[in-house]
Design brief:
- There is one protein chain.
- By secondary structure, this protein is of the alpha+beta class.
- The chain is about 50% helix and about 15% strand.
- It has 24 helices and 15 strands.
- The strands form three sheets. Strands 1, 2, 3, 4, 5, 6, 7, 8, 9, 10 and 11 form an eleven-stranded mixed sheet that branches.
- Strand 6 and strand 7 form a beta hairpin.
């Protein structure tokens, strides 16, 4: 087909084209270049439209399924990558490896799932007499490949063009965002044009770049060109396509290209992974927090922490981290049965048996009720038969993901949501956070920067923290060299923003303390206690312990997902009843400053003798079962009351065993030896400690405790014999 193209195109790029073929699909690409100088050449125009994800997708509408690599470490870009380009280096020249951008479909500012329908290739002659083979994707973009008119085939030199309109597609940087941001920051600074994108971040760059350029020749930047690889996914062009939509394909590509380079953070891999059901469920959980019906705001979850993380939350205003949420969902859907069935077992390290994980996943999602034995799924080369019994966390039918997500929400998804929103200390945290946001009217630039960092889920929070650390260090070093310390008015906008964050975090902690101790006096003396309490509660150990508590009851009572979802809300409410019945009981979590120190009482805090790691979840399950027993809830069914009593007896014995181990370690440390008499004394001392613990915190009489102690051994032994125990760890561990 011959003719001329009548479509006008906003951006035209040129370079060499190619295709990358795999069994999972095809990626087309154009190797081209962009330049820092703003001119009318294709290279100068392209730079204008290359932008990080954070400038393309509106955070208010951002879905985690569209999130690629939104947050940037602006401090590292400004100090490392900009310096690399602009500071003289006499060892050798500077060079950036190619930036990878994906052409993704949009409808104006809104991302859409598919490109327009592709047209059949045609041949046309351009105004300069160049003959091209043209493939058009509606009005969104077209791919041009130079055509050999003599041989009537593509020219052996793979010269090509990619023309597009930014109303329908945008070149989103998916690898090399930090390099791209360094180049964009330089371009926007020299052009005095930060308004078109990223104006909120100019404070990290503008002054520094201007300082670095002071002594450079005026034409220094005009010849700087940098390589860009633009890719697109030619298969998915309609809703009926069996191929992943371009946004999903780009997300996978991001994971792939980063896998063998500098590893993304654990939280980022969870956000981006489409290969595990649990990761998909985590993203759906976070997506829900962006809806109007959400029980608490998204910024209560630290979902994109850029570094490795310990057992707790990295940010003061976070209720949980994405790793904690992922761990809770893992326990809920795939936790080893032996820890769910038998609450008298400690958690051991080792690789969990994959067969056991699969069986539990099938049971918790009730797959037999929602999926047919055989499913028509889409494979690489067309439709395939997927067998339900083969479904695992890593192997599942893509066509049934909506059904699996629905099953997650029908049970554990909703239950975990209510753990966060309903448990009294968590509820105090959420309400204090909401009050802080509503009462913060930021008018100055640094105030707006600080507010966005705290409430918009931006990685800029960590950038501001690092920027402040470096500023503080430079200020101290300057003083040692006789340079006057900077006054408040001389501070950068980013440093001012970090100071504003610190003030607001303190205000948040004060609000949270008042809500936690609403019925107590002398609140000014309670802030340290509140901090200690939350230090225990905002951990993987407690969150997983809460999940284990509910999971064990669900198993004992043989509840289906719908019944479990309804009854779990009652069970969580009973934890609050236990705290309300005795306001002092909240101090049971204060391991560092116990109520005994404040009132000279012998009330030992809970779990103050072992390292608080995820394995401690079983001890928090014990404590929550004590809460349920002492709550006196009138909403428990008789069967639930019996199940709670039975599980509590076993769990209390587990806590007693932990106390015995503590006493043994203490004795060995004092004497470096032990005999039978010592062992008897150790057991007696541990028993006495647990008895006092139960009496003082839960009003359990000496008679009741002694009766439990006598009955515990036989009860636990009988229950253990009735369990269908299986090995959850591979033999080669």
């Amino acid at each position: 087909m011959l003719g001329e193209s009548t479509q006008d195109w906003e951006v035209k790029t040129q370079g060499t084209y190619g295709e990358f073929h795999t069994l999972a699909g095809k990626v087309s690409y154009l190797m081209t270049k962009a330049k820092l100088k703003a001119d009318t050449t294709p290279e100068g125009i392209l730079t204008k439209y290359l932008a990080p994800v954070r400038e393309v997708l509106d955070i208010k509408d951002l879905d985690f399924n569209q999130l690629l690599q939104r947050d940037l470490d602006d401090y590292r870009v400004a100090t490392d990558l900009v310096d690399y380009l602009l500071k003289p280096n006499f060892v050798g020249p500077a060079f950036y490896t190619p930036i990878l951008a994906a052409v993704l479909p949009f409808d104006g500012p809104e991302p859409v799932d598919h490109y327009p329908q592709v047209k059949e290739p045609s041949i046309f002659t351009d105004v300069d007499k160049t003959v091209w083979q043209q493939t058009e994707y509606g009005e969104a973009f077209r791919v041009l490949k130079i055509w050999d008119a003599n041989s009537q085939r593509l020219h052996k030199i793979p010269l090509g063009r990619l023309d597009f309109n930014t109303k329908y597609v945008k070149p989103v940087v998916i690898d090399g965002q930090h390099r791209a941001m360094a180049l964009l920051a330089i371009r926007r600074t020299i052009d005095h044009n930060w308004k078109e994108g990223g104006s909120a971040y100019r404070y990290f760059y503008e002054q520094r770049i201007n300082d670095l350029l002071k002594d450079q020749p005026k034409d220094f930047l005009e010849n700087i060109e940098f390589p860009v690889c633009i890719c697109w996914f030619p298969h998915p062009t309609s809703d009926n396509s069996s191929w992943p939509n371009p946004h999903k394909a780009a997300r996978k590509l991001f994971v792939d290209v980063n896998k063998n380079a500098r590893s993304p953070s654990k939280s980022r891999l969870i956000l981006l992974s489409d290969s595990e059901l649990t990761s998909i469920f985590v993203r759906e959980f976070l997506n829900h927090l962006r809806t109007e019906d959400a029980l608490f705001p998204l910024h209560a979850i630290e979902y994109d922490y850029p570094h490795e993380q310990g057992e707790g939350v990295p940010r003061k205003t976070a209720l949980a981290s994405i790793l904690m949420l992922n761990g809770a969902i893992e326990w809920a859907l795939q936790g080893p049965d032996k820890y769910i069935k038998d609450v008298n077992k400690t958690i051991q390290q080792g690789r969990v048996n994959e067969k056991e994980k699969k069986q539990r996943l099938h049971r918790e999602l009730e797959l037999e009720q929602c999926l047919a034995p055989e499913i028509n799924d889409q494979g690489i080369n067309g439709p395939i038969k997927f067998v339900r019994k083969d479904l695992t966390n890593e192997h599942f039918p893509k066509t049934e993901i909506p059904t699996l997500i629905q099953q997650f929400w029908q049970g554990w998804g909703t239950v975990i949501l209510h753990i966060f929103s309903d448990f009294f200390p968590f509820k105090c945290h959420i309400e204090a956070l909401k009050e802080l946001e509503l009462g913060w009217n930021a008018t100055e630039d640094h105030g707006a920067l600080a507010r966005n960092a705290m409430f918009q889920g931006l990685g800029i929070y960590w950038t501001l923290k690092e920027d402040y650390r470096q500023w503080s260090e430079n200020n101290q070093n300057g003083e040692l060299q006789g340079i006057p310390k900077q006054d408040k008015q001389d501070q950068t906008e980013t440093v001012k923003a970090w100071y504003a964050i610190q003030d607001k975090e303190k205000s948040f902690q004060e609000k949270r303390t008042k809500k936690l101790f609403y019925s107590q006096q002398n609140l000014e003396n309670k802030e340290k206690a509140a901090a200690n309490i939350y230090k225990r509660l905002l951990t993987q150990a407690f969150l997983s312990g809460a999940v284990l508590t509910l999971a064990s009851l669900k198993y004992q009572l043989k509840y289906d997902s719908q019944t479990f979802k309804e009854r779990a809300i009652v069970w969580i409410k009973s934890w609050n009843l236990a705290l309300q019945a005795s306001p002092e009981r909240i101090h049971i979590f204060d391991a560092n400053q116990s109520l005994a120190e404040a009132q000279n009482l012998d009330k030992r805090p809970f779990l103050d003798f072992i390292k608080l790691n995820p394995a401690a979840a079983v001890y928090f399950r014990y404590l929550l079962l004590e809460f349920m027993q002492v709550s006196g809830s009138e909403e428990f069914t008789p069967e639930e009351q019996k199940a709670i009593a039975r599980l509590l007896s076993q769990a209390r014995k587990l806590y007693l065993d932990a106390l015995v181990t503590e006493e043994e370690k203490s004795l060995k440390k004092r004497t470096n030896q032990s005999n039978e008499a010592d062992k008897d004394k150790v057991k007696a001392d541990a028993k006495d400690k647990l008895k006092r613990f139960c009496q003082q915190w839960f009003k359990i009489s000496q008679y009741e405790f002694d009766k439990w102690y006598e009955d515990a051994k036989s009860l636990i032994q009988n229950d253990s014999q009735n369990l269908n125990d299986r090995t959850d760890f591979d033999d080669d561990n």
